[in-house]
Amino acid sequence: MKFLVYNCISWIVRDQLCGHGYDAVHVRYYGLQEAEDIDIFRLASQERRIIISADTDFGTLLADTRAVSPSVILFRGHTERKPAAIAQKLLDIFNDVSIQEALKTGAIIIIMNSKIRIKSLPIKVIRPN
Questions:
Q1: φ, ψ dihedrals at 55, nearest 5°
Q2: Which residues neighbour 106 within 8 Å (Cβ) at sequence distance 6 or greater?
């Protein structure tokens, strides 16, 4: 699995993932700290990278476009935001075979404190009549 760490997540997370053998890149590597979310979305899709973020706009982009990629790991709520805690949470969930499969086939993984929700892509949006 390859990852693209978004601006709102420390570059230290990227370093820790790489230290455990994962292919991870921070948006700073590309000079895209100020890029629009759609540009990050396209880059991740082109490079087949999973976005790691705390920015809910990626969930909105997935819903609006009904895209099947890229997968997104989204930290929400009062989840611990220290780089070491984020990296450890990621390493823990990467051991879960169902999460690995979901990320490979297209999913948004939402991490809220100790809860993890998996939604397969494309996201089905029900609009009222």
A1: -90, 115
A2: 68, 69, 71, 120, 121, 122
Contact 74, 109 (CB under 8 A): yes
Please tell me the distance from the alpha carbon of residue 39 to that of residue 59, in angstroms, as a whole number: 14
Q: pLDDT tens, 54-79?
A: 999 999 999 999 999 999 999 998 77
| Nearest to 20, CA basis, from 93, 112, 75, 79 | 93
CB atoms near residue 33 (< 10 Å): 10
For residue 42, report the phi and psi dihedrals to the nearest 5 degrees.
Answer: -65, -45
pTM to 2 decimal places: 0.94
CB 102 within 8 A of CB 109: yes
Strand, coil or helix: what is 120?
strand
For 30-40, the pLDDT digits (tens) are 999 999 999 99
